Amino acid sequence: MFKKILTLSFGVLLLSGCATYGVISNDAVTAESDSPSTYSIKNIASKHSVGEVSLILAFSGGGTRAAALAYGALEELRDTTIIVNGQSRRLLDEVDVISSVSGGSFTSAYYGLNGDRTFKDFEQVFLRNDVDSHLVSGLFSPRRWFSTSGRTEMAIQLYEDHVFHGATFADLERRNGPLILLNASDLGHGVRFSFVQEYFDLLCSNISSFSVARAVTASSSVPVLFNPVVLENHKGCKMDDQALLQAAEQHAADSPQMTQVIQGLESYFDKDNRHYIHLVDGGITDNLGLRAIYEVIEVAGGASAFLKRINRKPVRRFAIISVNASTGADPDLDLSSKQPTLEDTIKAVTRVQLQRYNSATLELIQGSIKRWAGELSTSDKPIKSYFAQVSFKGVKDPEKRQFFNRIPTRFTLTDEEVDELIIAGHELLRNNPEYQRLIADMGASRQNLPSTP
User: What percent of the residues of the chain are helix, what percent strand, and what percent coil, each to the nearest 5?
Assistant: First the structure.
C-alpha cells in the first residue's frame, strides 16, 4: 500500500496544476440562539448519570490495524461486568468519552452512532471491507483528475455510502452514548481540532448538521494523498470563548506547550486572515488521541474548573484506557548492509518521530491523571486514578509481537490479521495490570468467550 501511496502522490503532483477547492458544509451561526442543544462536551456530559467511575477511552491512528484493535477492546469492555450501586452493569456502559484519531475514529464514530449494533456488523462494514481498493480506484478515476472538489470528496462519499449513511452530529447527540471526540489537525496553525460544538463556536458555526463521515475523513486524511477537509471561519457571532481563552493563557503562562495550544485556538478569532480552516490527519498533532483529553481539561483551568464548567461532580474513580496500535522497529532493516529504499527510509523516519512523540504524550498523561485525581480528592473522599496502556509492547510472544509490528498502516487487511488484532484487543486489555486493578476495585467479572472470533 505504501508503494501505491508514493505512486499516487507522484500522480497528484503531476496534476497539481488543476486547482481544487474544499467543499464548505459547516453552517454559520450569526447570533446567540436558544435553539435545540448541539453536540457539545457540556451537553453530552449532562445526559450521563454520575456513577462510580469516569471512564475515558483513547483510540490511536494506524488504519484498520488501529480500528480492529480498538474494536477488540470495546468487546472486552462489553464482556466485563462490574457492580454499581449493588447492580451488575457492563463496564462498556460506564464509558463517558472516546477520543480518537485517524483509523481509530472509524471505530469510535461507528460505535457512537450504532451502540451495540457495532458488534453485529462493524467487521463486515469496515474491518473486513476492501476499502483500499475503493479508494485507489476512485483516485485513479478520470472523473477525478480535473475535478475542482478534490480527492477527499470521493473518500467522504465512499464512507457515507458504505459506513455512516448520511449520519450527522445531531444523530450522534440523539444516541445518548458517550461523547465521541473525533480529532483532526489544523494544517495552517498546527493545532488539534476536535469535532464538538465548543470548537465550532470558535468558527461561529453549528455542528448539528455536519456530516460524521466528513469529520472522520478529516481525522484520517493523509496529507498530499488527500486534500484537507475545509471549514469556513464565519463572522458575526457572539464570541463567549474569547475571555475563557485569554484567562486560560494567563493560567498556562508557565507552560510553553499549553500557551502554543491556546494561541492556536485564539487564532480562529482572526476572521479576516483565517477565513478557511484546512483539516488533515489527527495523528499529526496527537496520534494517541490522548492530548485532546489533556488540552480540554487544561484549557478549562484544570480538573476542578473543568468539572464545574460542565456541571459535574467528582466520582470515586477516574480511569483512562489508551488503545495504541503503533508498531515498533522494523525487524528486517538491520539484517542486511544493503542501503534502505526510499520507502524504508520514510517509514523509519516517520516511526521514530511518532514513537518519540507518543512517549512524551504517555508521560504527560501519566503525570496529569495523578495530578487531576489529587486536585479533586478530599480527606473524606479520595479519588483513585487508573491509566491502562494497551499496545503491542504487551504481547509476550516475540513472534506474535513481530507479526503485529509487520501489519501495515492501511485500510485493507487479511482476515487473519483482523482476527488476531481483535483477539489482541481483548487479551491486552484484560491482562493489563492497571485495568485489572480497576475492575478488581469494582467487583468485576467477565463472560467466557471462545478463543477466536
Answer: 50, 15, 35
